[in-house]
Amino acid sequence: MRNLNLIATVVLFGLAAAVNAVPARAAEITVNMLNKGVKGGMVFEPDLVKAMPGDTIKFVSVDKGHNVETIKGMLPEGATEFKSKMGDNHVMEAQIEGIYGVKCTPHYGMGMVALIVVGNPQNIDAVKAVKQSGKAKERFAAAFAEYEAAK
């Protein structure tokens, strides 16, 4: 009986160790590309994404005529630029910490932009320094304010 209790204890500790050894799963975050959303017309929803390295951000073309593209100067050093095809979904793997600015190419002038914040960004000043105009400037200012308020 004593040996049976000992075996049961060893098995339970082994199971507990195995469960604790399972790595945390990376998150998949969905960003919808919309003609109309909560914040108005031509939007990414959400337009501020907080992710961790290893997470994926899936851009879903809910409405036709949208794509997602990185904005020159608005990504961390070493990160790869990307541009999806019109109407296609796109998956971004968040590998490098920093802030990424993205846009919908045909609707950029209408303010269809988003900020992707991965981990602990070190490039915020460089990203903020990129010149924007019109509605894009307004929406980026709002996204930065939202990010700063949530820190």
Furnish the topology, listing elements before pairings.
Elements: H1 2-21, E1 28-37, E2 40-45, E3 48-51, E4 56-61, E5 69-70, E6 90-93, E7 98-103, E8 113-118, H2 124-129, H3 134-150
Parallel strand pairs: 1-4, 3-8
Antiparallel strand pairs: 1-2, 4-6, 5-7, 7-8
Protein described:
It contains three helices and eight strands; from the N terminus they run H-E-E-E-E-E-E-E-E-H-H. The model is unreliable at 4-22 (pLDDT under 50). The strands form two sheets. It has a four-stranded mixed β-sheet, with no helix packed on it. Strands 3-8-7-5 form a four-stranded mixed β-sheet, covered by helices on one side. It is of the alpha/beta class and 151 residues long.
Number of helices: 3
Give the overall average pLDDT: 88
- The secondary structure category is alpha/beta
Please trace the helix and strand order, writing H or E for each element. HEEEEEEEEHH
Q: In percent terms, what proportion of residues is strand?
A: 25-35%
The outline comes out as: globular
| Strand segment count | 8
Rg of Cα set: 21 Å
Poorly predicted spans: 4-22
How far from one another are the termini? 57 Å
Q: How many strands, what sense, and barrel or not for the largest sheet?
A: 4 strands, mixed
Helix content: 25-40%
Spatial order of the strands forming the largest sheet = 2-1-4-6
